[in-house]
Each structure stands twice: as C-alpha cells, then as structure tokens.
Input
Amino acid sequence: MNNKGIQQIVLDAELAEALLKNAHYKSSGGRHRFTCRKGLWGVEAESFEEALRESLTYLTQYMADGEYDDTKTATKEQAHDAHQSG
Output
C-alpha cells in the first residue's frame, strides 16, 4: 500500500502522515502488519483495514502520552482528538 492509499483511508491527513513516518507496513501470506519504528507496538491482522485501524489506535494513544514528541508529527491535542473520534 502506498502513501496515497493510506491517506485516502485515513480521513485525517496529519494522522496518516504520522503513521507513515512512525510505522513500517508489511504484507505477507495474507496477513498485514504495522510495526512502530520505535518498537513501542505492533499489530497484525487478516485485512489491511483492520491492521490500519488497530495501528492508528496504538499510534494515537502513544502520541497522546507524548511518546512521539521528538518526531514532531502532531500535537498531543490532535492525537487525543483523533483517538476520541475513532
């Protein structure tokens, strides 16, 4: 899945950018996996959409906790708002 595909699925462009910057994506054997570049979390699912949804849940939680402050991808308020709306 390329960057444009993820951005089309994720309604918040800044959150999509944060995911692309902070996670790796891999598909193998019908499974889809996102892993945090910092090693904080990883998800694996049968569908891309499920893996994406779970990865955004972890990403926004860690962003709200300040774990990604050094990456300058989004503010804590944006992460909190995205998590609450999801």
